[in-house]
Amino acid sequence: MKEPLHLVAAANTSAPALATLHRKGYTVSRVGDEYRAERADRCLSADDPLQLLGLAAILDERGKDWQPSDDEIQALLELEGIDDSGAKRL
Fold first, then answer.
1. In angstroms, rounded to a whole number, what is the distance separating the alpha carbons of residues 16 and 53?
2. Would you state the pLDDT for residue 90?
3. Residues 51-68, mean pLDDT to the nearest whole number
4. pLDDT tens string 15-58
5. Cα–Cα nearest to 46, from 38, 37, 35
6. What is the greatest pairwise CA distance in the chain?
7. What are phi and psi of 10, to 5 degrees?
8. Per-residue burial over 40-61, b = 16 or more CB atoms within 10 Å of its CB, e = otherwise
9. Rounded CA gap, 90 and 78, in Å?
10. Which structural domains are found in the chain, ordered by start?
11. Which residue has the higher pLDDT, 90 or 9?
12. What distances in angstroms separate CA 54 from CA 3, 9, 21, 48, 84, one per listed residue?
């Protein structure tokens, strides 16, 4: 059985993320410390190209209705180990 591909978010993923954004039709620029990806129908802002690509993927998948559902928020809180009171579980 082949080993699964293992990819880590690190500095060496910024260039491929930038190239992917360009292939998706975005113009990417820096505004101060912020990265911005723009195309006719959207403008995305993030701290780095990999985060920009993540935002683009969310919009590609979900469109204008990108906001999380209550169930999605609950799943994130559970993953983060946060209980209903907002406290981190040990």
1. 10
2. 63
3. 97
4. 999 999 999 999 999 999 999 999 998 999 999 999 999 999 99
5. 35
6. 47
7. -150, 180
8. eeeebebebbbbbbebbeeeee
9. 12
10. 11-80 (3.30.920)
11. 9
12. 25, 11, 10, 10, 28
